[in-house]
DNA sequence: CGCAAGTTTGACGCTGCTCAATCACTGTGG
DNA sequence: CCACAGTGATTGAGCAGCGTCAAACTTGCG
């Protein structure tokens, strides 16, 4: 289960000073899991707090500030377009639960998926700077999306420098992922591309506590989406998946992926997760 | 010569308030062009000022602040590695003149070029946050590189909010370019990839005043580099270039590219430069 | 039960890769 | 002034990875 070339390394880049007694990881999880339908705002923001927490260990005060961020919780179904290419969104959307993805389209309808936005991720498109979006953001499945005013996001970063640091580091990671994807699509073959994508998703979702012990997790995409992700055709993706199944590496059906042999899959993909800057178990 | 789908559009996203009498574009150019060898610091910073100027119209004060940034000018030859993968740079490098590029490598030596850094561009890798670099940055040709302390860059942004805005917008554009490259490599065929790359370079360099009226410009890359840029092999790149030449679209020799028919080239590539957010002639 | 969406299969061919040789250009030293 | 080497460009033959098209099958769901 080592997705990292050099596991157990020190992580000097993590900002850990000023940590006041935090809720433990388990407490955090317990509060996160079951989501009944009252007091939604707070609960939606938890995914954001949790995400930021992965980059900078936040104090209770800071966590409180994140939870108090005033947002409008909404629920949208799959295929919902969160941000339209060419438009200039007024709000920042938080994917509180569910999955979103960025993509660009060609005139003839071919499209390339640029990134996946997981729970706790923001659909930021230079909102604070009045930029029009150069790409689409859509949902993969029914998701809880919380809308924040751009000013609110800017404001909390001004008031809490360490939260700002977490935002910046999160952004750095997104960029690193983008770069790895360029390498993936530009240089690796079909088998490696798909395996690599699976490895990455497994690590990222695992970091969010969204994987099971058996190595399985929800991945609400079909083969067409996977094709647009990896720059291949649906037909070819199908054949590659069959090969991976025959090799005993994965099981993938009903929008749920199970990685059966993480080590062999990672080796096959040439996957080294260090670009994801995931730290080990919460100390 | 229209590289833009909808030329002449208003640019509401440009921050133009608070502009105090600026040096005209021509004055600016005149000061920029000939670079004798004294007072280097100031002159090196000019490329940065000019770059920022493309995003936010800076006041003389602000331009002065950029020019006064304390940096160490250096000259490196081609192939010089500015930032090494896995290392944690202490400084931010400014490409004052010349060309740099980012790339990632696979274990077997295959590599993917991720981005080109043109004059005025910064080699930022999350320096301020003590991140290790996940990729290499190298030079394409002998270049003037000025090294700044990360704090100096952070400081000037704190003191001059509009300069900070320019930095952020520059970063947004770099990201937009990355996304367009993903689309390019993932979805377009060889001819389109290469044409698209040429169009982009022409527009970006034109914006910096580094193209000639005849549509030619320095592009210090060989076919192997172009292959690593476009995710193709050298042999195939060679054949595509021949095709483009036979079509009368380009001339490319001696590290100099001339675009002979920009309209046809852009049409062939499916190029729409709006993602570059280049504004029209300086008003 | 029947539709719709998604998956699987087969046949076929093109785009782009591999290997390997040859050619052009440029700078160097005798 | 020329032989030489080194780098980069070009060419050819052969092939395989992946795309295209079209049909059949499977699954989820009302």
The first-to-last residue Cα distance of chain A is 20 Å
Biggest beta sheet attributes of chain A:
4 strands, antiparallel
Q: Which structural class do you get from the secondary structure elements of chain A?
A: alpha+beta
Query: What would you call the shape of chain A?
Result: globular
Counted by DSSP, the helix tally of chain A is 9
- Return the average pLDDT of chain A rounded to an integer: 86
> Of all protein chain pairs, which has the greatest interface, and how many residues does each chain bring to it?
A-B, 41 and 41 residues
Strand content of chain A: 15-25%
- Rg of chain A over CA atoms, rounded to whole Å, is 19 Å
| Helical percentage of chain A | 40-55%
In order across it, which strands form the biggest sheet of chain A? 1-8-3-6
Number of E-type strands of chain A: 11
What features would you describe in this structure?
With about 280 residues, chain A is α+β, with helices and mostly antiparallel strands. Helices cover about 40% and strands about 20% of the residues of chain A. A four-stranded antiparallel sheet of chain A has the order 1-8-3-6. The first copy, chain A, has a four-stranded antiparallel sheet with strand order 2-7-4-5. A three-stranded antiparallel sheet of chain A has the order 9-11-10. The relative contact order of chain A is 0.15. About 10% of the residues of chain A have low confidence. At the A-B interface, β5 and α5 of A face β5 and α5 of B. Chain A binds a DNA duplex (30 and 30 nucleotides) through α8.
């Amino acid at each position: 289960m080592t997705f990292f070339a050099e596991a157990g390394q020190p992580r000097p880049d993590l900002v850990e000073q000023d940590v006041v007694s935090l809720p433990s990881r388990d407490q955090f999880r317990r509060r996160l899991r079951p989501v009944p339908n009252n007091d939604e705002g707070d609960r939606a923001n938890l995914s954001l707090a949790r995400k930021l927490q992965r980059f900078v260990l936040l104090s209770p005060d800071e966590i409180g500030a994140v939870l108090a961020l005033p947002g409008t919780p909404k629920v949208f179904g799959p295929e919902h377009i969160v941000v339209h290419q060419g438009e200039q969104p007024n709000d920042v959307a938080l994917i509180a639960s569910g999955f979103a993805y960025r993509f660009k389209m060609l005139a003839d309808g071919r499209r390339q998926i640029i990134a996946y936005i997981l729970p706790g991720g923001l659909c930021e498109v230079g909102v604070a700077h009045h930029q029009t979006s150069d790409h689409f953001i859509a949902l993969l499945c029914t998701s809880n999306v919380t809308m924040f005013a751009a000013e609110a996001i800017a404001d909390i970063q001004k008031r809490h420098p360490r939260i700002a640091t977490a935002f910046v580091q999160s952004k750095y990671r997104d960029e690193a992922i983008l770069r790895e994807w360029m390498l993936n699509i530009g240089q690796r073959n079909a088998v490696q591309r798909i395996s690599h994508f699976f490895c990455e998703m497994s690590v990222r979702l695992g970091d969010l506590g969204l994987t099971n012990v058996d190595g399985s997790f929800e991945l609400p995409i079909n083969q067409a989406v996977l094709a647009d992700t990896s720059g291949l055709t649906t037909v070819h993706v199908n054949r590659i998946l069959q090969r991976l199944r025959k090799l005993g590496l994965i099981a993938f059906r009903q929008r749920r992926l199970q990685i059966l042999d993480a080590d062999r899959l990672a080796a096959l993909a040439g996957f080294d997760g260090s670009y994801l800057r995931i730290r080990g178990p919460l100390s």
